[in-house]
Please model this.
Amino acid sequence: MDILNLNEHFRDNMSSEYRAELEELLEEFKRGHYPNVLSKSADLRLKGDLDRELRDKLRMVEAISHSEIGEVKASSDIISELYHDSTIEWMLLGELAFMCDFKLARRILSSAVKEMEESGEMDRIKLARGYLVLAEAEENLEKYVRAIKYFKKGLTYFQDNEAPDQYMILYLHFKIGMMYSMKNEADESLHYLNKVIELAGDSNEELKINSLVTIAKTFGSKNENEKAYPYLQEALGLLEGSSLENKLSHAEALTEMAFYYFDQSKLAEAVPYYENAVNVYKRLSHVSHRKVGMVYMQYAYCLENMEQPNLREAGKSYEKAIGKLELTKDGELLENALADVIAFFDKTNDQKTKRKYENKFVELTNAKNAT
Model:
């Protein structure tokens, strides 16, 4: 059931004497007029002869409406009330709570799956869905061990189903692999992500690309760049013209390939990959300033030190790097970067720009000493 499909939720109530009011409320919800929904629902709940089931459903609609307009506390409070005393099943309430309060979602869904397990729930896909949403809540709470546990539970139910949903099986292998990656458990991550590549074929390109890039990053983090290289080659080939082109995965693949050459001191070969990576990062929002700053630093170093240096572009990249790193809270990283940039402008005899960054270095040092 689509938790936001109110027509489905209220289908059994349309024969009541309040059909006209319900139809009006549902139309307002469909149009996204959530304040009107809240007002009409509250008025309808004042009717003295309203049965409990309909009253609970109206409260549920109010919870959704509050969530949709960003009033998450109000939404969470209503869902919590319904969890403790209502006719609405816990599974549905848990999915609604996921929209506004991950901790509440975890509490409700834990109860829901436990109840379904104990009662011998016959709909295994429903049970699997409960574990999946519970796992997503744990993931958002950065409780990766529990997230892995619940993703695996969900995977088991999908695999055991009479008509297995191959996409969900593939997706869950990917999620589990990513969770292990977040926990820096490389071997487990590689196992699940390689399974994604094996199962993906040509019809699940996004999952395949993301798995290839994550595997490459995993090998890179272990300083096994030669093992990373074929995954990067395949990923970059698939990225061109795909839905992930110029997205974060693309930038990461380009960065990893650039570092593959950087690490071997093949600086000229690294430059075009760094150049393309920074061009992709420019298009993205909510990217780590630290990550982009370090990419600019490495790009600048390559431009400065390759056989045929491009000092003008190197200087620009060093300055962009400092601009990004100043937005981080890592004073030590910024201090080291400033030292490198000062050395560069001293070497290129650009005293004006050198003094600019020397002043920044002094300000940073004074601020550190003052604390």
Summary: DSSP finds 19 helices and no strands in the chain. The CA atoms of residues 144 and 179 lie 6 Å apart. Residues 351-370 form the longest helix (20 residues).
